[in-house]
Amino acid sequence: MGTPDAISALRVTEAAIEKLGARGITTQDARKVPRSDHNDVPNPHAVGTSTRRLLIGRTTGGRARTQVIEQSVDPTTWPIVTGWDASAREGEHLKK
């Protein structure tokens, strides 16, 4: 099932802030996803050996959210690449 317990912090770059903001997602909301019921899965759009994964979880308000995260040198801190409201199919990865 991936490494959800290893993700303890998310780093948000300026590029990610712009991408998230374009979808109405605040940096604060994005950082809260690993603190809730969440799961991380391989990025289905990745080519070859990708260091990117999908982090799927809920905001504190209960909205299902998908974020693309990327492995970094620190195994517990993952930069956010982008994010969006989770599709129904992505939401199936959340624990019931």
Task: Summarize the SSE layout with pairings.
Elements: E1 9-12, H1 14-22, H2 27-32, E2 38-42, E3 52-58, E4 64-70, E5 77-85, H3 88-91
Give a description of the structure.
This protein has 96 residues and is an alpha+beta fold. The protein has a single domain, classed as YaeB-like fold (2-Layer Sandwich). Helices cover 20% and strands 33% of the residues. The chain is built from 3 helices and 5 strands. The longest helix has 9 residues, at 14-22.
Kindly report how far apart the N and C termini lie.
Answer: 15 Å
How many individual helices?
3
Which fold name corresponds to the CATH topology? YaeB-like fold
Which ranges are low-confidence, i.e. pLDDT below 50, for 5 or more consecutive residues? 1-5
- The ordered string of helix (H) and strand (E) elements is EHHEEEEH
What shape does the CA trace take?
Answer: globular
Strand content: 25-35%
Would you report the number of β strands?
A: 5
**CATH structural class:** Alpha Beta
Q: Let me know the largest β-sheet.
A: 5 strands, mixed
Task: Characterize the quaternary organization of these chains.
Answer: single chain
Q: How many domain modules? A: 1
Structural class: alpha+beta
**So, CATH architecture?**
2-Layer Sandwich
